[in-house]
Task: structure prediction
Amino acid sequence: MEEKNHIYPIFDRMMTRRDKEELLGQHSVMIWFTGLSGSGKSTIAIALERELHKRGLLCRILDGDNIRSGINNNLGFSETDRVENIRRIAEVSKLFLDSGIITIAAFISPNNDIREMAANIIGKDDFLEIFVSTPLEECEKRDVKGLYAKARKGEIPNFTGISAPFEVPEHPALSLDTSQLTLEESVNSLLELVLPKVKNIK
Result:
């Protein structure tokens, strides 16, 4: 029988999340924006990323456009596919967190069960749920992508807020109504919440 003593392990142990966080000088956390289409989720997420970046903190934004065109390009908008969309996003987010990266997700994620699933995959201690609570009337008034008009005509079935429900989060870490708050005010509230959790650890 051929001896196996010529096989050597290439590592004693994988580097841990703590190792990565120490390298980056930050704690990783998941900032999960939920709210209706047009509520301001992506706008706030992008502004928050810029502010954290200015402070030397490494972030990654995940949103519908960069996920649906890539890793989830085989999914539609059925109930099953919506759940799978969020499940994959949560699993990808966990990989980023394990790499020490502050991860920002901006998805409608319309019901409590789906957000609970994401929180359980990611880990509830790392999961900050941010409810962008802008009212439907304001979101529809903006109708940035023309989606509400199509949904009202019946061209988009199961559209959240029109022909499908949105469940308000039960215990969000923060609620932001962009019909009442400026972008700067929203981001400042987020920084107050997030910075103590991601502060430099070097």
